[in-house]
Amino acid sequence: MESNSGENIREKLAYICREFRIPGELILYRLIPTGHINTAYYVALYDGNEVRQFLVQKVNWYVFKEPVSMMHNIDLITKHIMSKERTLERRRRLHFHHTAEGNNYVILGEGENAEFWRLYNFIENAVSFETADGNAEVLRMSGKAFGKFNRQLQDFDASLLVESIPHFHDTVYRMNSFFDIVGEDPLGRVKDAEEEIALIREYRDFAGTLCRQIDRGELPIRVTHNDTKTNNILFDRDTLDPLVIIDLDTCMPGLACYDFGDTIRFAACTAEEDEKDCSRMKLDLKLFRAYTEGYLAETREFLTDAERDSLATGAAVITLELASRFLGDYLMGDKYFRIDYPEHNLVRARAQLALFRDMMLHMDEMRAIIRECSC
Ligand code: ADP
Ligand code: GN1
Ligand code: MG
Q: What is the DSSP string of 173-188?
């Protein structure tokens, strides 16, 4: 059961469904190609009576070193969120299935080849957005969804969570790791990215702004999502109502401004994350405003003044941080993010740096919009 191709993957998915005690025969499966980290499949089973659909996902064990603890985090978070919702409608919640041993995961294989799988409900008639395509409503609804998520987790005890990726948005640590890789240059690729490295070096101190504010006790640590791309929300296909937030793997203590900022980075811009023509990559202030309106409508009651003032900085810092992560991965030989072609991570880093530059040029406008939407 090692290869993931053809019949082999069908057998593997059918085996996993049996492990999770799903009755019936696997009649359909399809790889869902979005997401840079895990590997997700849609599966449908027929038991002679009805067709049931699931999401079966292989967790990236290279990225998530302690997946069992991570699944425990997800269990606690989903239960907490459900306790706040008035409806138990299946389309509005993630329900992870358990094996006969009571685990919400199965491990296939052993040693280096071991694989970590989970299975949960497939949300029907839903869409997620790889790009907002200029649609301000997508941004407004995303702001509401992630704002609500932050609000619902306000009273969640952060000490219950294991950090699924230590130092995930510790930007000082990220910068140090990045420049260590540049120093080592294991594959001789630094020569491909001299300008990009120089730009990151120029802003290395800026990248630590929020870390210093944490150290001074100015910004509260909350339980946050930490990966707030619009493709991590499932919306109702017809009404655009946000149904459920997915990809809870990085839910852990963090800053509100990173949850705010990461959606801005991903979707309040004029091109996709991996746009090759950097001149096309700009911040879109109309989309920025729509997201800010949605996000603050849900969070203005509890965000502190310092947090509100940190939102625009959060967008720029997280964009710079991700540029360094993409570029660091390129320099290391693309071990972390899934790539579609050899220079993909370099291209992604360049696009993020173009967006970062534009954000820095529009910092005052972003701050003014946040102030306007705060009242
Ligand atoms: P990754 O960590 O690789 O980003 P995700 O958990 O975000 O993985 O899943 C990848 C994609 O699969 C999502 O962007 C979404 O389009 C789809 N997806 C994930 N979970 C569900 C679900 N329960 N129902 C329907 N689609 C889903
Ligand atoms: C990864 O798994 P996915 O595609 O939702 C990454 C995020 C990055 C994002 C960039 C665990 O998110 O941190 O911001 O790619 N997730 C992890 O698209 O590293
Ligand atoms: Mg995802």
A: HHHHHHHHHHHH-TTS
In the structure encoding, which two tokens stand for residue 163, read together? 């950090």
Contact between 346 and 192 under an 8 Å Cβ cutoff? The reply is: yes
Residue numbers of the domain that contains 318: 136-374
Asked if 194 and 314 sit in the same domain, the reply is yes
Length in residues, the chain: 375
Assigned domain for 303 exists: yes
Instruction: Provide the whole-model pTM.
Output: 0.96
Q: What is the pLDDT of residue 154?
A: 95
What lies within 8 Å, CB to CB, of 199 at 6+ separation is 353, 357
Q: pLDDT value at position 88?
A: 72
130 lies in some domain? no
Same domain, residue pair 105 and 215: no
Contact call for residues 255 and 221 (beta carbons, < 8 A) = yes
Ligand closest to CA 63: 2
Q: In whole angstroms, what is the distance from residue 206 CA to residue 239 CA?
A: 40
Q: Tell me if 273 CB under 6 Å of ligand 2.
A: yes
Where the chain has pLDDT below 50, the residues are 1-3
**Which atom number of ligand 2 is nearest to the Cα of residue 164?**
11
Pairs from 10-15 (Cβ < 8 Å, separation ≥ 24):
12/108, 13/41, 13/43, 13/56, 15/108
pLDDT digits 0-9 by tens, 49-82: 999 999 999 999 999 999 999 999 999 999 999 9
Structure token digits, residue 32: 């869902």
Same-domain check for residues 113 and 161: no
Query: Which residue, 102, 108, 109, 105, is CA-closest to 120?
Result: 105
The SS3 assignment for 116 reads strand
Q: Does residue 38 have its Cβ closer than 6 Å to ligand 1? A: yes
Instruction: Say how many Å lie between the CA of residue 25 and the centre of ligand 1.
Output: 23
- Regarding the beta carbon of 275 and ligand 2, being less than 6 Å apart is answered no
Ligand 3 center to 265 CA (angstroms): 15
Angle at 336 between CA 128 and CA 324, to 5 degrees: 90
pLDDT at 7: 63
| Residue position matching structure tokens 């965000």 | 303
Strands 126-127, 115-121: pairing is: unpaired
